[in-house]
Structure formats: structure tokens, C-alpha cells
Design a protein that fits this description.
InterPro entries: Ap4A_phos1/2, Ap4A_phos1/2-like, Ap4A_phos1/2_N, ATP_adenylylTrfase_C, HIT-like_sf. By secondary structure, the protein is of the alpha+beta class. The protein has eight helices and 15 strands. A hairpin with a 2-residue loop joins strand 1 and strand 2.
Length: about 260
Amino acid sequence: MLWDIGYEKSNKGLASGELLPLITNDLIIEQNGIEFIVNVETENMKVKHSPSVATHDPFVSPYNPSAYINTIGEQHVCLLNKFPIVVPHLLICAKNYIPQTSPLVLKDFDAWVQGITDDNVLGFFNSGAIAGSSQMHRHMQLIRTSLPLEKTILQGLLPFKHDLIKFEYLNAAELYQHYLSVMESMQLYMTSRINGLTECHPYNILLTQRWMLLIPRTKNQVGEIKGHGVNFIGRFLVSSTEQLEWLEKYGFERFLTDCGVPK
């Protein structure tokens, strides 16, 4: 149901001009046998980063009716991303403000998995600005996309530090317990607190119906290109053809390794 409403509201938003996609058509760049997806960003990126938008929290009620999809449990709501990188682009948001840098809780996973309904859905989470988050109110993201790096991920060939868990069925409680274990073993908890909550070092999570990947982060920019959680599945966003040429020459996997922790 979330996706059906998401498609319907996205079509209306595109027609009315309320939805402002950040991307152009997909460009496929093959490198090392992997078909990476690259998008050149639109002028809407300037709107997203304008002061009036950047300082506004769109995840608190009252919600924009054109963005509201549904309530998920007592603590979360599903909203449409006004600035999608893929259309539709769904957000699972905490109703109350919780810092994006604080640890996820079981209710977050309970709500998040509600949107992972088929093999084409990718969930991703950016813990803080260094991990690619532009909004510090707790939210997990959902898009439908091909997964260029999935084979590399499942074969254990990623060149940077990560944790991968494979499973046959999505189980929020099991995912959460594994998440807690990895956060501890990778020493991603900080001693500082924000709003009374523990803070975490930056990391990304990718989540599908078959596996979950957690990647510690050390920087969010290499050259002039910023690193986002969705990059780690093989999707990239650049601001110009010059940036695309630079990234292709620099190397997609080298870029990801620089954003993470080399093995």
C-alpha cells in the first residue's frame, strides 16, 4: 500500500511541480565488469540546499498532504521525499524529533521493513552528515532500483570495512539484534550524548529482502563529490559532466573506499 500511494502522489507532484527530482536519466558506466548508475543532478539541488528549505524540518506534523503517505505504528510516519533521487522516494520518519546520529531502535526496524516489499526495494540509512544525511531528524529511506554492486557485496569482495548479514526472510527483531552487535564490535558508539541520547560515529546501512550491509564512514566528500549511502549499492549523483569524467577516471570503488575504512 505504501508504494501504491507513493506512485500516485509522485505522479500528482510531478504534474503540479511540488515534487522536485534531483536527477536526470540514468547513465550506465561500466567499470571492472560492474554497470554503475550515474545521474547528473538538476537545478532542484539548489532549491534543496537553499536556506529556507535546509533549515526547515519537514518530518514534523502537520505534514504536507501531498507528501503524507501513511502512519506506521505509534512512532513513525511514511512521507514522500520532495527531492527524490528515484521516483517515488519514500521516507520512514520518526514522528518526534530524534537525532539522526543516535542509535536506531527496534521500532525503527519494525517500521522500515514495512516498505521493503519486493526484491527491487532498497532501504538505506545515513547516520549523520559525514554519512550523507542532509536532514538530522531520524529517517530511513526507500527506493526501487537495480543493485549494481549486489554481486560484489554477496561475494565478499568490497574493498572497504563492512559487515554483511544474509537472511531468507526479513525479521526486524533479528536485524536489530545483529545491528546492536555490529555497532558494538565496530566501536561505533561515541561517549558524547545529544538530547540525552548516545551519539554514533558515522555509518550507512543498506537493507534489502535478502541482506543487510553496514559500512563505517570517515568522510563524506572526495574531490568535489559528496558520498551518500546509496553510493554503496553503485548509484552516484554528480553535479556536472566534468564531475562524471573525474569520477570515472578516479574509480567508483576507489571513491567508496576513500569514503569508508579501507580493509
